[in-house]
Design brief:
Number of helices: 10
Number of domains: 2
Radius of gyration: 32 Å
Shape: globular
Mean pLDDT: 87
Largest sheet: 8 strands, parallel, barrel
CATH superfamily of the largest domain: Divalent-metal-dependent TIM barrel enzymes
Number of strands: 10
Strand order of the largest sheet: 1-2-3-4-5-6-7-10
CATH architecture of the largest domain: Alpha-Beta Barrel
Structural class: alpha/beta
């Protein structure tokens, strides 16, 4: 007997379709809550993750670092951060709630370089800076624009923009933002005028480029931020040229040099030519408030002449911003990146170098004195001999 199979028509029911639930949006980072984020440039010597603990002990909730030596040309492509080190940095940062993290690029980079070999090297080295910053989850990569050797600043700004574009080609920057820093205007350095920074930003439309404003550079370049009216004029000018919302980082440095000197020399907060009162006006200005731009950071690059200078400068900034004491992170008493032992070792090293030269100098001086003494003895002997001969002739 033949079995008859009845065919049933399948009917599509949209309710039967499995639609996975969307992944919840990640919570915004703690440092994007509109609170003051204050940090200092921290050493990575020994261990890059240790820089986070150093910043924490100094009373910071943000920091800036180099990811390699800032005054040496690294070999392109050979300065990557080990995966284990990068993971340890990211983990420790989350534990401490530290952020934002800014990386400062190598000082030797000249994004306006025109000589072919120098330009290729600059772009390769800056690309490595981007890759290293991405690997540790940094938020900002700060770079000095460079120098227009021929004095053509407009052309120099175009070259800077082109170099940034080439260095970032093919990279997905994610949360990393490149920031060009204003300069004091020494020589043919680009960036002492905000029109030049605006031209750089306009030349890289595919990348969201921001700005880092250094207070000491502003002052040295001729912007009168040390007066109330001058600060208002300066901020209005910045807003008209690049837009204050692009200012993601302020380098909070006082200046050792006079207004308009065009010389970049940082001083301790409140002890330089800008002064504590003017620095407080900058830090508390509503247009520069972190509530206006969430995640805006105030980072120190002040000198450390004596142990504790770093901790004292951080404390000075927290005092000048005027926030409630409960919002200020605790610093570890007596902690400093510069220790008495480091000073002692440095002085000992200098002394050993000096002492190494002393025996040679002493020997040279002794030989000279000996030769002089020998000449005197010979001269005296000659004079005595001549006198004796004269006496004998007189007697004879």
């Amino acid at each position: 007997m033949v079995e008859i199979i009845e065919k049933t028509e399948l009917v599509y029911d949209p309710e039967d379709e499995y639609i996975p639930a969307p992944e919840p949006a990640p919570e915004p980072a703690k440092w994007l809550d509109g609170s003051y984020r204050i940090g200092i440039h921290t050493t990575i010597a020994g261990d890059i993750a240790r820089s986070l603990d150093i910043a924490h002990k100094l009373g910071c909730n943000a920091l800036q670092i180099f990811t390699t030596s800032p005054r040496m040309w690294p070999r392109p492509g050979r300065t990557r951060i080990a995966d284990a080190d990068a993971k340890r940095f990211i983990t420790r940062r989350a534990e401490l709630g530290m952020g934002p993290v800014a990386v400062h690029a190598n000082y030797l980079i000249n994004l306006a370089a025109t000589e072919p070999v120098a330009r290729v090297r600059t772009i390769q080295v800056f690309r490595d800076e981007i890759v290293r910053a991405m690997s540790i989850g940094a938020d900002f990569l700060i770079v000095h624009p460079g120098s227009a050797r021929d004095g053509n600043m407009a052309r120099g700004a175009e070259l800077v923009a082109d170099a940034i574009r080439q260095a970032a080609r093919g990279l997905k920057l994610g949360g990393l933002r490149v920031l060009v820093e204003n300069t004091a205007g020494m020589g043919n350095s680009i960036g002492s005028r905000f029109e030049e920074l605006a031209a750089i930003i306009a030349g890289v439309p595919e990348i969201e480029v921001g700005v880092c404003v250094d207070t000491a550079h502003l002052f040295a370049a001729g912007f009168p931020i040390h007066t109330e009216a001058g600060l208002e004029q300066t901020l209005a000018h910045i807003d008209q040229t690049i837009g204050l919302d692009r200012v993601m980082v302020l380098h909070v440095n006082d200046s050792k040099t006079a207004h308009g000197s065009r010389v970049d020399r940082h001083d301790h907060v409140g002890r330089g030519k800008i002064g504590a009162e003017a620095m407080a006006r900058v830090l508390r200005h509503t247009l520069l408030s972190p509530q206006r731009v969430a995640g805006r950071a105030f980072l120190l690059e002040t000198p450390i002449d004596e142990p504790g200078d770093d901790r004292r400068n951080v404390a000075a900034v927290w005092k000048l911003v005027g926030v409630d004491a409960q919002q200020v992170p605790d610093a570890e008493d007596g902690f400093s990146m510069l220790t008495k032992a480091a000073i002692k070792n440095a002085r000992a090293a200098i002394g050993s170098k000096t002492s190494g030269k002393r025996p040679k100098a002493a020997a040279k001086k002794s030989a000279k004195a000996s030769a002089s003494s020998s000449k005197r003895r010979v001269g005296a002997a000659k004079r005595i001999g001549a006198h004796k001969r004269k006496v004998r002739r007189a007697k004879g």
